[in-house]
């Protein structure tokens, strides 16, 4: 039972990180109709820059700089590319982000090489014991930070003028534009927010129990895409639920891997996709996504 | 080019006969060019060495796969990142069916059915199609973009399965692919020894013809499908699901079929790919392979069969050429020497190409060709009123000049 509880807590903390990434994914989709495949490489960029900066300027400034850099790159992608082809077919928009993703990812892999960079978290290596299993302090802090950020995000989404503008343009872009809401600005802010969320998630994803910054972080980040899809691409609440669901499922699969060994070693890493496909079989628009209706 | 003289000729005779449309002349030039291209491809192995032939075979494999993916993404409007998975299904099925039981690379014993490789190839196509059909509860119901991410799952789940199912796939180490045979004729280096016009026909020469034959077949099949009733149906579906449904197109059924057809193409491409790389490991069929296929069809022009073939040529041949000529290129060096490795240089280039093509020329290479074509066409015409690009072949009903 204690093992189950520990795994649950582990899963929730991992899920909170997935939710952070998925939230960015969802608001980008809501504001600019873009399914952003750049998230994996943005995350890697965040992790890499934090690790590199912290060699020279210390941990806290490095985190700030890394988060800022990621946000700026996200903003540049929006301004230089997405903004130019606003209104193109959804598939073209998605494919463009894949192109950007290839470029950033290749650059990251080239820079990292086969090393594993270390982010010197002040809380590195410490853990809290619950029964027979431990929970790393990194995950505990990440859970707190993620919860805080997610709360802040939902407040801003509900009450700030940006949040209102954003929801209005997601509801009906044309009407919102006629009301004087600047679509370009809404989508630019969405990309910045997504960049920040991805970089913060990256900070914790590369801490214990993960060894450090290596290109495999990219694959971990991709696990957030199923989270966004299964919650419903246009639902922020769905991203939260989807993230948690996938985090818990992954932690459980890793914890009980001896019992599910017949499914093959390392089944935990494909759990996000299995859960996603299972949900999509029943609900093709995700758990909370709005079903697309067409009026003729 | 003989085209210039031909233009002058018809230009002179056309003075008295304005009713004669220049389009009729173009319809002679195009088959001529295609015939010349085919002839060039047929005699290619007589003049070029093994490196070019191997590259060529890889390109033919990619052409088949790209045409298949284009049917789905370009013509049906369903984004799929699962292409690598279906390639893997084709490759693994071929290997399993055609290989015999063997010791394997590691400690594991590999199973195989030991049937003729032709059966293996057909089985690869069928099993891939079946896998595509099994995915149809998802592929038929999801909108284009949801499917993009959902299909991402297939790649990862597939890799996991292939890694775990050691007796069939060889696991992480992979297994070697049995060479192709057609009714006793081997596509290996000898048996029988073969010389054509003094040139020894070894494995690479023989495979070249196999690839050429299959790629041309795949091209013709796709073109005909698109002109047929189902082809029209899926293109209507892409433009508007509602309109398609109103006109009596069964949306879900056609989405499922398009996905299945595309998977079958991928299966065939997978068999060729396996033959081309000689041994398959699950790692070869990762997300990057899917992305490179997407790059092919985007560069070639979404929805154009010939464009897909062009894109396949570009994306497949580029990294190989970079590797071959790494010394001659600035900035490019062998891996681990400070410069940009050849594979990376190719990645940068096609990442950038995807972005630039979508921003500046969304119709890709095919669109570029069409535009050049229509510009020449306009220059010839007095008054230059016709600004439309030539109507696609097989669609004469919309031809304004008749």
TrEMBL record, chain A:
Pfam families: BPD_transp_2
Cross-referenced InterPro entries: ABC_transp_permease, BCAA_transport_permease
Membrane topology: Multi-pass membrane protein
Transmembrane regions: 6-27, 57-77, 89-109, 140-157, 188-208, 220-248, 260-282
Keywords: Amino-acid transport, Cell membrane, Membrane, Transmembrane, Transmembrane helix, Transport
Main location (coarse class): membrane
Location relative to the cell: Cell membrane
Family in the record: Belongs to the binding-protein-dependent transport system permease family. LivHM subfamily.
PANTHER family: ABC TRANSPORTER PERMEASE PROTEIN, BRANCHED-CHAIN AMINO ACID TRANSPORT SYSTEM PERMEASE PROTEIN LIVH
Protein's name according to its UniProt entry: Branched-chain amino acid ABC transporter permease
Natural source organism: Blastococcus carthaginiensis
Lineage: Bacteria, Bacillati, Actinomycetota, Actinomycetes, Geodermatophilales
